[in-house]
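Consider the following assembly input.
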Amino acid sequence: MPGKGEEEMPGSGAEVPGEGVEREAGPAGGSGPVGRSVRRSVTMRDVARQAGVGLATVSRVINGKPGVAPELVRRVTETARALGYRHDVTASSLRRADRRTATIALVLEDVANPFSSVLHRAVEDAARAEDILVLAGSSDEDPDRERELVDAFTMRRVDGLIVLPTGSTDEQLDAVRRQGTPVVCADRLVEIDRVDTVTVDNRDGTWAAVRRLRALGHRRIAFLGDLDAIWTARQRYAGYAGAQAEAGEAVEDRLVHRDLHSAEAARAVTAGLLAAGDPPTAVFAAQNLLTIGARRALQDAGRQDQVALIGFDDFPVADMLAPGISVVSQDPARVGRTAAHLLLGRLRGGDDDLPARHSVVPTRYIARGSGEIPPER
Amino acid sequence: MPGKGEEEMPGSGAEVPGEGVEREAGPAGGSGPVGRSVRRSVTMRDVARQAGVGLATVSRVINGKPGVAPELVRRVTETARALGYRHDVTASSLRRADRRTATIALVLEDVANPFSSVLHRAVEDAARAEDILVLAGSSDEDPDRERELVDAFTMRRVDGLIVLPTGSTDEQLDAVRRQGTPVVCADRLVEIDRVDTVTVDNRDGTWAAVRRLRALGHRRIAFLGDLDAIWTARQRYAGYAGAQAEAGEAVEDRLVHRDLHSAEAARAVTAGLLAAGDPPTAVFAAQNLLTIGARRALQDAGRQDQVALIGFDDFPVADMLAPGISVVSQDPARVGRTAAHLLLGRLRGGDDDLPARHSVVPTRYIARGSGEIPPER
DNA sequence: ACGTTTTCAGGAAACGTTTCCAAGAACGTA
DNA sequence: TACGTTCTTGGAAACGTTTCCTGAAAACGT
């Protein structure tokens, strides 16, 4: 349906030549040849010479260290500005005793997916408060790609690492941590020495939601799950299975479809379930896209008001559909914030030798209608 | 409505102590004092000594430069691995002739917003192909914050910069570019010497959509616009105004609401319009959230099937609502990809002295129903 | 007024790498 | 065999900074 009624509109493509104003700037040094404009950048040494002070003094001023005569501070600041001096953090961190680069890295599943990107933003905000920048990359759930990213990041000597681990890289993360770079894992639990984690309470959130469906009278509850390689997917299934077991109900294999990784897959599976005999009276979709896919199938069959649906993980405008989609919502921002604080704590050095800490953030059930539909008699 | 029926579920908070397995690894160097474990990292010099070759040779091997005896290559690679040597890109780029850090930076409005994050992903993919990493930051439409970010990035000597400019930082970007760092601006047009841009065809996209509404018979078409400081918001308004002018229709001030920056603001404004006399028969919402807000107001009034609505910028599940929301969709991935290619081109050095290039990517109208509602007689 | 401590400033070494350069080995040619 | 070339190799300098250390001057106590 989305691919219908499309039209392409060509752009106007205005071409702007650019002015090319040449402004006066740069060292304009004393002895060097003035021949070609080689654009060597202004260094501390240039500032020192120009200001008539020592190199060490410039360094002290730039870093705001105490114990420099106010007059010199003024002169250095002044000439630095005049010469257009730009501090080089790269060289700085190389020499600096703590080797800090004021940069941390973030390995996400996909910077463009809402969960990842909201988490990213939370990390950015926490880091910004300490003037730390964030390098981000997408692993796409591929352990090799994750390894490459971690590698590339550590080669750049980032101060710390926050990873949403695929689960097959524990040794590498352990090595990185042991080599001196703090590591925090987010969203998925791993058990690595001194690697903190922060995860969402997937199991209990799912458990409680399924229990609700049962309380409404549902017995045939379908389960749609994400790739089984993902820790969260397994946890959510565990919640579903737990709630069924708790009620003395055996899990019906035909109602359980794990290892789905697209809305389309979920739609197809759900359509199949609805068409077959003895269809489910409720569906639990354990991930965003799966929820959307399942709902699409329900709408296609015109059954969205008869079959209950609960999704794991909220998404925009889920409340504007009719009926609204009830979800177990998680709080990616809180996950990111917590992970960042754990990491920054270790960076500050106090918690250096602490064993791994594991933080779990709770979920919240949001009732919007689709989860409150009773089974048809 | 979304805030209803919430319940908090406490986590189980499983505490896992962490095993503390000590594995054998590391330099285990020859002559140094073995006292405290000071964890100095393994350097090229260590590898050179251990392998019995010169420092320069190790460098050549690590960088895959030709002209080293196969035997030595083997020996160096071998000992590097054995010692757990990790190349230091920081030191490398300091000394390297081209000073490349293999890192580019991205200044977005907000890494968590869908447009920004999809663009981010496209940039990441293009950069990855050349083993380049991406630093990202959110300006939140604040020129000061944008300046801070650009500053922090250039201090880290990134090779290039892609910016969604707020519009008040032209001088700084010009300075950065002149200092030798290629800059590309995305999503908003700026005219700075040798700074490429890639923008979406906001004006024409809007124009054509409004023209469609008119063709359906609509005359009173409301316009909801984003913050007027944003270039795209002004362009979209220009498209609206153009289409109205083209039809000889004067723009009615009461129907035009610019400078809105939240779904809630759009909802309130739309509700007001619907309640007042002579309400619009169609609404054009010039941004994502505004579209959602407007639709919310229409649903609140039960008018979503009587009043036409077209939004600028697509969003997930817009097609699952009833009626589906018609939009002028843009392609953030293509914007990102284009920007990245422009930047990488300049990085490769060929296009160094080329004047600014301006690329415009087209929009696409997607008909889903809400834009196809004729005016009520 | 003198000796001692404290403060401030600058020269030089170092961070881990790449690149320049010179020297030796290997090779082909006369 | 002698000689010019080419190919490999390693030592040393350099990248832009921070930090160590020394020395001079100022401040202090008696």
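Residues 5 and 11 of chain A are 19 Å apart (CA to CA). Ask yourself how this observation constrains the way the partners meet.
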